[in-house]
Structure formats: structure tokens, C-alpha cells
Amino acid sequence: MDVINMLLQGFYVSIAPTNLLACTSGVLIGTLIGVLPGIDTVSTIALLLPFSYHMNGTTALILFAGIYYGSKYGGSTTSILMNVPGEAASIVTCMDGYPLAQKGRAGAALAIAAIGSFIAGTIGIIGLTLFAPPLAQAALAFGPPEYFSLALVGLIILTKLTGTSSLKSALMAAVGIMLGTFGLDSLSGISRFTFGIDELDRGFDLSILAMGIFGLGEIFTVMTQTNSPPEIPTIRIKDLYPTKEEFRRSVVPMFRGSIAGFLVGLLPGPAATISSFVSYGLEKHCSKTPAEFGHGAIEGVAGPESANNAAIAATMIPLLSLGLPFCGGTAILLSGFMIHGITPGPTLITQQPDLFWGLIASMYLGNVMLLIINLPLIGVFVQLLRTPLNILMPLVAVLTLTGAYSINNSILDLVWIIIFGIIGFFLRRTGFEPGPLLIGLVIGPELERGLIQGLIISNGSIWTFITRPITSTILVVGASVILYTLVHWLKPFIHIRKKETRQ
Amino acid sequence: MSEKTISLFLFSGILSYLFFANQLAFGTFISPKSGFLPILAGTLGLILTLLLLGSQWRTEKTTQQPEMDWTKFIFIIIGLIFYVTMLNMIGYLAATFIFLLYLFKISDTPQWLLPLAIAASTALTFYFLFDRFLAVTLP
């Protein structure tokens, strides 16, 4: 009952004209960046951080959250129409969405994706409403050792789930932690790795790093690729109606995808992307006609598109209740919280209930807005896709650079953004996933604080991290993941050794 | 550029990081100092890079890379360096206009009139948006 009362209070906050405008703008911008390939959610939020300085904290966060979950709606458009995923979570949608478009069912696939996203988004937000407050309550019992173990295990799981190689992801997370140590040490106040440059005292700005690695890195990729973009089919409103059969076949995958997506969203890593792959596999496994998958099965669109939206809502749970971001999107949202002097975590619900519940209520509203926006405006988004990339990318490049400059009015930030842009470009080209680097940068200081404070309060005894009930449970999970990875990694060596002995 | 080159770049970067981290006080387990985590993280990074280099040398498998225009890439970098260098000298409006026009031309935008018009209007719009509307002091 208390939850309902608080949620109603949240709706009162979220329908304030400025907040409603922020929510509408957020979901519109989110849909746009989801639609346009080459523009990333993380870099867009990073780019818009300076725009929020003059806003109220709640309004700014409603705007950023709108961009974050809105982008997952638009991602399906290019996947279905052009076989080009608007963002990573929509890669799976290409597999059946594009064949459906080739069969003349692009409109129906887009409509099913939008309806599935709405249902899953709503289920995800209900989960967020129900689970975030009790988790935050439980997190009040967390001390530095608990935060340390949670951050550590979060990073371990993240490296296992991200990218193609656990080793590369782990290395990226370690590099992120190292970059997080640049600047003034928050515990001792000593300058580290600043080399006498005063501007380095504040360390590497998360938004600068994100805009460089994700934004500029993506601009380099798109502007230098030699292949020409595919043709875009014309979509009319009447094409958007799915047949009764298509709708019947999509209902169960939508709900199944929602639940699977929500559960995956609670794990560290690129939850939206992973959940869509999990849901695709699940649908193929449950289907009576698995051979149809890859050739235009509507379930292959309904399930994954639902899953990635439910996952997005779930990723907000650790951020809001523990203050720990476990994916790039929530990491940059945390940056938005910090700019406005708000610390997400266990005390957020009790100390700033208007912000917490207002944000959640805005997600309910935004989700409805997205359904309303997406179906009739799909034709407009398709037109936007016709914007030539050789015009669009230079404009995004200048916007990124101007946005980066405006954060600290610093030319040095522009130098960093170019360096990070080049690094991000080469990292992605060589299969190094930059996501863990960003998370490592955000979680690194939390990890250091937890480790050092934990050691100080336990008089240097490392056993504190193992013997406390919560930390031991969390660390057992981490150890199991490491053990599994090690066994998996050593398998080829053992296999070769066995072969040699046999010979 | 191959994966091995990136791994070697990371290896040298982490090695330099560890060199500077060793100049910070490590402290003890009872009283960890500012070099405690940097040394631990650097050592972990070094081990991971060595493992990665080892596995890369063992297998010749490389990530499939899409084709790209390297000349265009170098020209974009030159443009970016020019932009950052010129920003304080000639001001935001002029630098952004020239930089945009340059980017349009190297990304093969045909003719001159349209790129000129878009570059001029974008520079002006961004200037008013950031400098006047958002009160950001642009050079």
C-alpha cells in the first residue's frame, strides 16, 4: 500500500509541466538515436550532460532516463528496414526482422516490436517498482567490505558476459580501474598520475571518456567505412497492422521475453544485448517451427525486442538501490546523478522520495508515450534514416566536440576526447569491448574506497572480506565464475597434453 | 591494425602506469596508502596483458575487420587537430565553419553550395545554442 501511495506521489511529481516536457523530449531523443545508426545512447547522454546544468535534478534525470529506455524502442527500426542495428541490443532483430521486411511485412514487424517493447517495458518498470525499495532497504546493512565484494564480483561477471573474449574484457575493466585512479585520491587527498597538470587533478571525466570512446570512435568508424548503406523501403500506416496470426504468435514470446529480459537485466554487463540473444534462443527452443527462424519468424522479433526493454528497466535496480552501475548506460546515468549532487543508493528512497518515485512514475508515462510516438511516427523516422551519413556524421562530430568543451570550458578535454576517440576506434576494430573500461572507471573508486576502508576497520585482516555473511556469499559467486572461466580457458591445453601423451 | 599491436600498446601503457604507481606509497594492509590500489590494479593489468599476448601468439586467429578508408581516417585526425589548435586563435564560429566544411568535403559531399550553407548555419546555430542559450563561454 505504501508503494502505491509513494508511486502516486511520484506521478504527481512527474506530471509537472517541466518534468512532462523532459520525459517527452527524452523519449523522442532516445527513439531518434535508437533509429539513427552511428549515434550511441551513452555518448548522447554524455553529450547532453552540460545541457542539464540549468535544470532541476529530477527533471534532468527524467530526461536522461527517457533517452536511455527510449533508445531501445528505436533500435529495431533500422534492424528491420535496413538490416543495420540502430544499437547493439537490436542485432538479433536483424535475423528475422529484415527477412520479414523482404517479404513485405516490415510494417507488421515494426508494430510487433513497438507493442512488445511497451508490454516488456511496463513489466520491467513494475519489477523496478517492487524490487528496488526492498533491495535498497537491505543495502542499508552494507558496509565497505560488502560494497567492495559487490563491485569486484560485478566486474568479474561483467567481463564474463561482455564481448567475445573474457580476457580482453577483464583487461579493459582493469584499464578502466587504472584510469579511475588518475587525479586527487579521495581518501588521502594526494595527487596521482597528474604530472604537474592541474586540470588532471579532477581525474578523467566519465562523460569525456564516454564521448571519446563511444561517440568519436563511432564517428570514425561510420565516416571511414567503404560499404554503401542499403536502400530503405517505404512504409505506409496501413502496413503497420499485424495479421491476427502474427499477433497470436507474438503474445507469448512478448511475455516470455519480458521475464527473461528482466532477469538478465539484474546481472552486470550489457544486459539489453545479452537478453535479446537469450530471448532469441529461448523462442527458437520453444517454437514448433524452429526452421523458420532466420527466415522471417515473427517470434524472433517479438521476443528479443521485448527482452531488451525489460532488461533496461531491470538495470536501474542496482543503480537506484545500491548506487552501482553495471552497464555503460547506467554508468553515464550515474554521472548525471553526480552532476546534480545526487547520490543514488540505499538512502535515495528515504532522503529524496520525490526524485526516486518521480523518476519511476515518469518511466511509466514515458513507456506509454513511446508506444504513441512509435506507431504513427514510424514514417517520419524512416524519412530521417534517409539523411545522408556524410552530412549527419560531421554535424554529430561538431556537436560532440562543442558539448565536450562546454563541460569544463577546457581545450584539454578536446585533446582527451580525440585521444580516447582514436583509442576507442582501434579497440573496437580489434575486438576489445570498451564497455568494461567505462564501468571500471566508474566502479574503480568505489572498489578502492571499499577495499581501503574495509582493511582499515578490520585492522588489515583480509579475512573480513571472506568471513562476513554477505561478502562471503557474493565472493563465492565471483570465485565460481573465475573457476569456470579458468577451466574453460585451460581446456585446450589439457586437450593438447592428453593428445601428446596418447601419441 | 592487428590485435597484437593493440595488446603491445596496452602492455607498454600499463608498464608505464606501474612505473609511476611505484613512486606512490603502498602502505601496509593495516594502513593502505594512495599507491595500494594502483599497484594492485597495474599488476593485474600486466598479468592480463601477458596472458592475452601469450594466447595471441599461440593462435593466429584475428578479428574480422570491415574494410575502411585509411586516408579518410588520417584526414579526419588532421582536421580534428586543426580544430583544437585553431579554436582559441580564430574563435568558435570561424573554426567550426572551416572544420565542418572540411569534414563535409572529405566525406565526399558533392558540390560546394550545400556544404557551405550547412556549415555556416550549423556553426551559427551551435554558437547561439551554447553561447547565448546555455551560457557556455565559447572561444
Strand proportion of chain B: under 5%
Termini distance of chain A? 71 Å
Q: Shape of chain B, please?
A: flat
Question: Biggest interface, which chains?
Answer: A-B, 65 and 67 residues
Helical percent range of chain B?
Answer: over 70%
Low-confidence stretches of chain B: none
| Gyration radius over CA of chain B | 23 Å
Tell me the β content of chain A.
under 5%
Q: How would you characterize the largest beta sheet of chain A?
A: 2 strands, antiparallel
SSE order of chain B: HHHHH
Order of helices and strands of chain A: HHHHHHHHEEHHHHHHHHHHHH
How would you characterize this protein structure?
The complex is a heterodimer of chains A (503) and B (139). Chain A is mainly alpha-helical. Chain A is built from 20 helices and 2 strands. A two-stranded antiparallel ribbon of chain A has the order 1-2. In chain A, a hairpin with a 6-residue loop joins β1 and β2 (191-192). In chain A, α5 (91-102) packs antiparallel against α12 and α7 (144-161) crosses α8 (166-180). The longest helix of chain A has 34 residues, at 106-139. The radius of gyration of chain A is 23 Å and the shape is globular. The termini of chain A are far apart. Chain B is mostly helical and 139 residues long. Helices cover 71% and strands 0% of the residues of chain B. Chain B contains 5 helices and no strands. Chain B has helices at 3-21, 36-58, 70-90, 92-106, 113-133. Chain B is flat. Chain B starts with a helix and ends in a 6-residue tail after the last helix. The relative contact order of chain B is 0.08. The interface between A and B is large, with 65 and 67 residues.
